[in-house]
Every structure is written in structure tokens, then in C-alpha cells.
Specification:
Layout lengths: L15 H11 L9 H8 L1
């Protein structure tokens, strides 16, 4: 599946190098988009 992640990161003890490595992997990926008309229709 694609386009499902909003935020990536780490927890306690995650090093700056690990966060940088995550950034290197996800940076080229397109940002997640939402379909507002679907969201509001389902929420009503």
C-alpha cells in the first residue's frame, strides 16, 4: 500500500543519525493527500 503514512520518527533513544536515515528514505516520496469530499461526506 502507498500513501498511508503521515508522520515518521523515532522514540526515546533514537539518534540523530537514525532520524537522518529515515529522512533520506522518505524525502523522495510524494506527500500524502486526502480527499476532502470523501472525508466530509463520511463524517456527516
Amino acid at each position: 500500500a502507498e500513501g498511508l503514512v503521515n508522520i515518521v520518527g523515532g522514540c526515546c533513544g533514537t539518534t540523530p543519525e537514525h532520524i537522518a536515515a529515515i529522512g533520506d528514505v522518505v524525502r523522495p516520496l510524494a506527500a500524502r493527500t486526502t480527499r476532502r469530499e470523501f472525508f466530509y461526506k463520511e463524517a456527516a
